[in-house]
Amino acid sequence: MQLFSDADRRFSEAVSQLAYTNPFLPERIEREKAVLGRQFNEPRSVWSRRVEEEQTRPNVLKIRERVDAVVDKTHGRLKAQDARRDAIAEPDRTLYQDLVHYVLYYRYWASFSAAISASDPRDQKVPFWEDFRRDFVHLLAPVLGPDTAAREARHLFACLFQLRRAFHHTFNFIVGASPSAARLRARIWQSIFTHDVRRYRRSLFDKMGDITTLITGPSGTGKELVARAIGLSRFLPFDPRQQRFDADPHGLFSAVNLSALSPSLIESELFGHRRGAFTGATEDRTGWLEACPPLGTVFLDEIGELDASIQVKLLRVLQDRAFQRLGDTTERHFEGKIVAATNRDLAHEMLAGRFREDLYYRLCSDLITTPSLAEQLAEAPDDLPNLVRYLAQRICPDEADALADEVVEWVTANLGADYAWPGNIRELEQCVRNILVHKEYCPLAATGDGSQGGSPPAVRPGNGAAADTGHHEAAASLARRIADEMAHARLTAEELLQHYCTLVYATAGSYEATARQLKLDRRTVKSKVNLALLDS
Known about the structure:
6% strand, 56% helix, mainly alpha, five-stranded parallel sheet, Rossmann fold, 4 domains
């Protein structure tokens, strides 16, 4: 039995491809175009969060209307002919199921959205489950059979809730219309569902906790937001008898900033300890790994700072999912997911012997790199107002538009389009706060970040160009002095390293950028830079 006319089959095949496409890749837009043909209308090449627009776009509404019509027509044909299920061609059966899944996802979009904001899905029954199950069985029983349809409804319900949560968190956490921001959103989606969503739905939905994610990128680029998007979007089984999800998605993510803790405290925080394990251990303590539930995620920020002895213990967790509390011999098991992040060059750290290769190769099964703000703005210069407006909404929602306009005007007049934003999104957020409070922002000069030699010179409103010129003159003067000292062999090796680190630091603008350029550890760079050399 043929379920579709030729035209409906072509349309259904295009929708089927669209439904399983990464929503943040440019091909998503191309497949929308293939579905809608001349009705397609999309001025942008990527999906990005715009503060002023609704999440449901006009193209999506058009596709939904057409898919609803095809499903109604096909379902009516199935009921009228009362055909045996085994008489339906398998490709047509798959296409029809894909269309029904698409219809149900958008039919219950608002209900799934409300469930995301619920305090805890375990506290009360999911009110729309019965309606969803009834619709699923009604539409799919003719091709699956009533019993199979009733069983599969539960799994699809959980999958669609996960899709909705993943889209919500990724779309709202990672802002920007640049290609690099779009690639980051697409990469997060793959970290959640892999590149093959069909395979994920069939067999990987409960196995992604075994895959560790490693996020790299400069400081201030939103690595924790990436980790949260992944951790808050994990699959949650649904219990149809209780009509509840098995866990509260809001309580499944824990972040541990390793750079803020001493090595001994890191060990206790991660693995826990027994009473008496060390001075001050007056009672047993449960560590983050033990407290993490099976569906949970532990985010280890600044993993490049880990002491070698703790790296060994973490390696065992990743290899065997096993660990022991400090002062205890009982073996415990970690059942959650680990997401780690660092702004360090781990390849350099491994060459220097500060980071274990075997640990890296346990971490790198899923790699994500966050782009710098300068990279995003170089690709999409007009995106700055959108980013500022997003931040302004978080800081001063009642007057976000007015504040955003004020910030953009000030930045354009005083910093200009070429400002490098060395602090990335974190710096832009503080820029918005400074202009809210003081009507100006005084960024650190390119000569340093103020951690040595007292407060650094700042770029004042209206004199950004002059300050930048002075900075370059100081760097050029230092370069000439270094050349002269070298020509007369008057520098020791230590002095040469100090002078050169300071020179590179003057142009790179931060310790991190200097460390990357010189292939040195950030701490080494910080100990060698002497800002006084630029003033002499």
